[in-house]
Design brief:
This protein is mostly beta strands and about 400 residues long. The protein folds into 3 domains: about 100 residues, Immunoglobulin-like (Sandwich); about 100 residues, Immunoglobulin-like (Sandwich), CATH 2.60.40.10; about 110 residues, Immunoglobulin-like, CATH 2.60.40. The chain has no helices and 32 strands. The protein has a 6-stranded antiparallel beta sheet with strand order 3-4-13-12-8-10, with no helix packed on it. Strands 1-6-7-11-9 form a 5-stranded antiparallel beta sheet, with no helix packed on it. The radius of gyration is 29 Å and the shape is elongated. The relative contact order is 0.11.
Length: about 400
């Protein structure tokens, strides 16, 4: 993707993190993360301060947010307000293997300052105080200061649902942006990167912090099944510009991948339980199920998707939706259905309104709960055989 690049320089707003000035005579002080001393040591007569008054020993101006997947993101401005030179060391707490700060060590003359940047791995968990770092300053003789500070890491939860069938490529990209205080937009670039003549790509820009993007917008890429697609995500903050940059690939084969993220907040709907009534008939050779579900916390509820996955005959698979809450029910096959016709024209509507030609087949029945914006936040699965015997119910684990 040679034509893709992240935005250049970006202004950042900062929260000032410095502590009040003090005069220390032959003692040590403690400065906590909330603003008191963590550890300072000085000989008699040494002036020690770490404060918000701008005249303290060590000024720390911490960026309110550090981007992920981007090189050299601003982390903290360090200023030497002392009357002597200081050697300063900055280190990430519990750094992942690919993470780093620059410069990790520096010497500052009185009045000197430097901007420390960080490169943060997208695998790091996000949150308001997700990134901690330590700052140590010393004059090499009589004075030393140790501080710990924290700042926010933005979060992009994403899931790529591969809906490829019959050589036609389709993806649903579910996304959720968190911990970006002034979210502006998400840009998604999808490109077929296989070495063939398909030359397929499309760009999307969305301004909602969560939702679903369907690729391609035209419906499907015909004849591209088995090709590799690259997905590039970039999230922008109004103040800081680009704050998340991630790339991943998928082979268009109808199977979803393992690196998808989990979605869900405390205010999202919850699947409490569901039961499956098996009305299948071995004698008349058809499968028929009724599913009843119960939800809680439904303020942000959108709909339920119930998938009936026949492990032997994929042509009989169906997904049935329901917007009923807090309780509801669906039936398989859906009214007026009967599946995809089956191999060789078989597998139509069976006796009793069931799916013909599938009795005795194993099924995975999954109930998935989605929010108003189409984000899946909870699910449960029951495995059964279409033989007229009800499987045990699904019950949420506390």
């Amino acid at each position: 993707m040679g034509n893709r690049r992240r935005s250049g320089g970006k202004p950042i707003t900062r929260r000032s993190v410095v502590a009040g000035g003090f005069v220390v005579v032959g003692t040590g002080l403690m400065l906590t993360e909330s603003g008191a001393f963590s550890r300072t040591a000085a000989t008699r007569g040494a002036s020690v301060g770490v404060g918000s008054d701008g005249g303290a020993l060590l000024g720390l101006d911490v960026a309110p947010l550090v981007g992920v997947g981007l090189p050299d993101e601003p982390l903290v401005d360090v200023t030497n307000n002392a009357e002597r030179a200081l050697d300063v060391t900055i280190e990430l707490v519990d750094a992942l293997g690919s993470e780093s700060v620059s410069p990790a060590e520096t010497s500052l003359q009185p009045g000197g300052s430097t901007t420390v940047t960080a490169t943060i791995d997208p695998a790091r968990d996000g949150g308001p105080d997700a990134l901690a770092f330590d700052v140590t300053a010393t004059d090499g003789e009589s004075l030393s200061v140790d501080l710990r500070r924290r700042t926010a890491i933005p979060t992009l939860n994403r899931s790529i649902v591969d809906r490829t069938r019959n050589t036609n490529v389709e993806f649903d990209v579910q996304y959720q942006v968190r911990d970006v205080p002034d979210f502006d937009r998400l840009e998604l670039f999808v490109e077929n990167v296989s070495e063939d003549d398909h030359n397929l790509s499309e760009s999307f820009t969305v301004t909602d912090p969560e939702g679903v993007i369907s690729y391609p917008s035209s419906g499907h890429d015909g004849g591209a099944e088995g090709d590799t697609y690259e997905f590039t995500f970039e999230v922008f903050d109004e103040e800081q510009g680009s704050v998340i940059f991630e790339q991943t690939t998928r082979v268009a084969d109808g199977e979803s991948d393992d690196d998808d993220d989990d979605f869900g907040d405390d205010d999202d709907p919850v699947l409490e339980t569901f039961t499956v009534t098996d009305n299948s008939s071995l004698e008349q050779d058809y499968a028929q199920f009724d599913v009843e579900y119960e939800l809680s916390n439904t303020e942000n509820f959108g709909w339920v998707e119930v998938t009936f996955d026949n492990q032997n005959h994929s042509w009989s698979d169906q997904t049935v939706t329901s917007e009923d809450e807090p309780t509801g029910s669906v039936s398989y096959p859906e009214s007026g259905g009967g599946g995809g016709g089956g191999q060789g024209g078989g597998g139509g509507q069976g006796g009793g309104g069931g799916q013909g030609g599938t009795s005795g087949d194993p099924y995975e029945i999954t109930v998935e709960v989605l929010t108003e914006s189409g984000i899946p936040v909870d699910s449960g699965t029951v495995t059964t055989v279409a033989d007229g015997e009800d499987p045990p119910p699904y019950v949420r684990e506390e």
